[in-house]
Structure formats: structure tokens, C-alpha cells
């Protein structure tokens, strides 16, 4: 028997909810903000807009479908199924948060607060949810490239935007860096870490590093099988070099980093709490991931 699709609504706790949870009541939260020259009404209004969007999307789920909700902090404990249709209601970053837990399920990004988000990944409005869900099986979708890091002890990390490798607290990281299949050329480095990003990440952290560096490398497109990597603030010394500080990785390319610090970490999309823990002598390889994010682009039959 074929299971009916399940709509999984992904959302995050609002700033208002976090403030009330921290201070106990609406009044105490309002007093806290007013003492700092801010008005809780603005935060509360964004909260109400987000919940109205979530309620509108929930109401649009076809009656024959199953449905579930998952908050961002629970994503690592939620079991996604092959038949799921994932609806992210919120910010662009929430799509990146959920991407690593999926395996080809279609994702519909709904902007929970239009006008405040760039809309790179949350491209739709709550009013479009019904049509998108009904036509998701035939809807067009972008297949967005992802990046992965695989350690020699089988730890694996996947990200949509970028993977950062470095020391905890962004202190000096020491390691040996090289490109797989590059004739064994390896350089010992001391730096603020290494960033490897995708075309989707080229709208965020990767772009800021690229722009600050004045790099001549061409930024990849979100669906392109090409990554860029940058070493942040490499330090020249008698024992460490700065010749391998930027480059691109083709589809099969891998950047190899061997740890020469007591502890380094690798985390994706800015989520430091979900990181690979790397110790002295371990090697991690970073490159394009075979899995992609399938992001629904439009309502079938509409222009």
C-alpha cells in the first residue's frame, strides 16, 4: 500500500517567543526591551506575521495528506521519510538548516515575513502553498549543489552554503593543506580557518570573503558542480606558508586538510553546535556532495 504524502512544516521559534521564555511574561519582556530603547510591539508583530503564515500553510495541506511540524532545534532528531514534502516557513537560512537532513525530498520555501528576507531560498508566499502542494509532483525544481566534509574516521557533514574548518572560538588553526590528486603538494599553515562554499553560499559568507579578498575567481551558480575555497588570514612564518590560500574545486575535486592542532572542528551553514570533532593527525576531505537540495521553483501552470 502506497502511503499518502506527508507535509512536514519546518519553522523556528520567534524572537518574541524567546524573549517571553527568557523573561517569564510579556510584561517583563516589554520592560526589558523598553529599558534598552526598544519596543516589544514590533517584535510581537513579526511573531504574529510568522504564525499567521504558518497557520495559512497548515490549512493548505490537502485533507488526504498526513502532516507534521518540526522546530529548527529538533531537526537533528526528526526522521524524514522518502514520501515527505518539506515546507519551510521562515527565513532563507532555515532552508539551509534543513537541507542536510534530506535525501531528495522536494522543499517549498515560504517567506514568513515578506520584506525582511532576501527570498533567495524562501521564494513563495503562504497564499501559494495550496497550489504548490497540489502540484508538487510536476512542479519545476532547482537542484542545488551541496558540500560535504568526510573525516578519516567516517564522520560526515553536509551543508548547503558552506563548510568552515578551524579552531574552536576561531583562534589560530594549524594544519597541512593540499588538493587531492595534485602530486602530493601540501603546505603547513596557521590561519583563522578554511571556508569551502557552494553557489548558494555565494550569496552569503563565501561572497563576503571573495569580495574582501578581491578574488578573480568566478563565483559559482547555485546549481553548478563547482565550489570555491578560501583560507582566512593565513600567517607566514618559517614553519607555515601562504601559497595555497584560494581556489576552486571541480565536481570530483577534494580539498584535504590534516590536523596539526589539539582540536579543530568542521561545521556547516554556521551551525557550530553540530560539528565534526577533529584531533591531531586526522585528515578530512571536503568537496561536492552527491546529494542535492531539490528546491521547488514555482506553481505548475503559472508564470
Automatic annotation (TrEMBL):
Source species of the chain: Streptomyces edwardsiae
InterPro entries per the UniProt record, alphabetical: NAD/diacylglycerol_kinase_sf
Taxonomic path: Bacteria, Bacillati, Actinomycetota, Actinomycetes, Kitasatosporales
Name of the protein this chain belongs to: Inorganic polyphosphate kinase
